[in-house]
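Morning!

This is the sequence you dropped in the shared folder:
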Amino acid sequence: MLRLASLADLILLACLASGGCTQRVDIASEQATLFNRDTEWSRAAEGKDVEAILSFVADDAIFFPPDGPMLRGKEAIRNFWSELAETPGFSLSWEATGAVVSRAGDMGYTHGLALVTRKDEEGNTDTKLTKYVTIWKKQPDGSWQVVVDIRAVYRVRILVETEAEAEALSARIGREQKLKAWIVPIP
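The structure's back. Tokens below.
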């Protein structure tokens, strides 16, 4: 019996020493999954379906909208999105430009650019380019949910080296006509 316990101890020790007992995380695969999850969330936002939007959001999430107070919890975020969805002329779309996942594979973030369109006080259409960082947490079921979303309005134009870069970035966001005023080649 002592001999069997010693063999089991040696196997366990070898397993722990080699890292063979720990689950390996495929970071590249998780980053691709997170990037796609962010894209799916953007499509839900474009559709203005509040419950679909909230299906990506953790119950205890915190949002930092560009022109408003911090929102804490799903109910506050639901109220915010409900109001936006009913706002005439409102639209929001974003495109992730990157995704990063922790070594443990349990946390990650996406970042990118977004276009927000609203009517101003005079009824004119006002489109703003925003930047964002969204922090995601992997859930026990393997899905990713938003725990923090931070957005800020660009106060200046995005300068790029060439007209081709401007066109490529505009096309990537998917709103070429609206972005031409924001993304300009450096003179």
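Headline: The first strand starts at residue 57 and ends at 64.

More detail when I'm at my desk.
O.
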